[in-house]
Amino acid sequence: MSSDSREVILGVGAGIAAYKSADLLRRLQDRGYRVSVVPTPSSLNFVGAATWEALSGRPAHTQVWENVHEVTHISLAQKSGFFIIAPATADLIARIAIGRADDLLTNLILASDVPKMIVPAMHPNMWNDPATKANVATLRSRGFTVLEPDTGRLTGNDSGQGRFPEVSRIVTEFDAMTGNKQDLLGRRVLITAGGTREAIDPVRFIGNRSSGKQGVALARAAQLRGADVTLIAANMDTSTVDGVSITHVESARDMQVELAKEFKTCDVLIMCAAVADARPVTTLSEKIKKAFFTSIELEANPDLLAELARQKSHQIMIGFAAETTEHIDSARSKLTAKSLDIIYVNDVSGGAIFGKDVTHGTILLRNGEEIALKEVSKDALADLLLDYAIRQLG
Ligand code: C5P
């Protein structure tokens, strides 16, 4: 499993500032990071696991002894792109500097070589103690980013350097470390998602298994990177995505109408929707009685993507393909036939991928490049496709 640049571990040490990390967690999520919280056992005296689990929507493990069969310390370490340890106490800093692995967090830190940020918070005497100074210097020399604590009033009556920094400063510094970018600022991204339904009668339709999850992941990722995003959603569970304008459609022809309104002004079109290739020649206004429901005459739907490709001016166009056989060859033909810049082909044999949070497949580019993806989250694929789109936008 490869690490994911939006997957972050938030390590929480046993300082009173732990409660401020609840807000930090929220702000990180707002920036598009998906955060797993790993509190040290003693930090649970300040903020309990229930708070972290509720806020992150994920389990909050503290010990290597939990879920041993999952080898949590290795699997979590492998999938995470970055660490942020906040608050880091003098003791936690000392344990990391010395290479201890006596709880899950310190195990993870040792097991992972991704960039790590440490946000210290402690009494000024502890921060200024030569032992802490030496430990901080050691960590910095090993590539850890250690923030300077703020100066001011501490929990008691004392004041000095040792306060947990303002959350906005932490987030800015963290973004700088991760390279989180707003590289779609001022761009319009149009995305279709879900699967069209072609009505047979008021009750029945021809549909497909597309859940719309990949389209939502794309919309969210583009929005977080600063784009103005419109999502044309066909028959999906998701009805809203923060900051994204959504239009709901049912059939391929409804989608065609909405695309026609939006295409000219978009910079990137991502046709993630599974569009039905054909529709019934007639849609009956009354339910067809069982005895007469024996065959359905079909006619071809327009190929929406191919049509738009003919009107394309500056747009980057990304298509999706779901194949069960000869997937690379058919996707490459579609890339050419539909004049696409990029196509992502899923191997959906055996019902894989539909409705799941992970995908596997291949990205094909116009210049012949092929990027095979073994197993990635749909969020990670979304970011990767946007990276390629931006590369081509110039
Ligand atoms: O169905 P097919 O494999 O040809 O789909 C490839 C791409 O073409 C997808 O991005 C899909 O959204 C788009 N498509 C379309 N209109 C159709 C069929 C597919 O725009 N009628």
Automatic annotation (TrEMBL):
This is Unannotated protein. SUPFAM superfamilies: CoaB-like, Homo-oligomeric flavin-containing Cys decarboxylases, HFCD. It comes from freshwater metagenome. Keywords: Decarboxylase, Lyase. NCBIfam families: coaBC_dfp. The lineage of its organism: unclassified sequences, metagenomes, ecological metagenomes. Residues 185-389 form the DNA/pantothenate metabolism flavoprotein C-terminal domain. Residues 7-173 form the Flavoprotein domain. One of its GO terms (molecular function) is FMN binding. GO terms for biological process: coenzyme A biosynthetic process; pantothenate catabolic process. One of its GO terms (cellular component) is phosphopantothenoylcysteine decarboxylase complex.
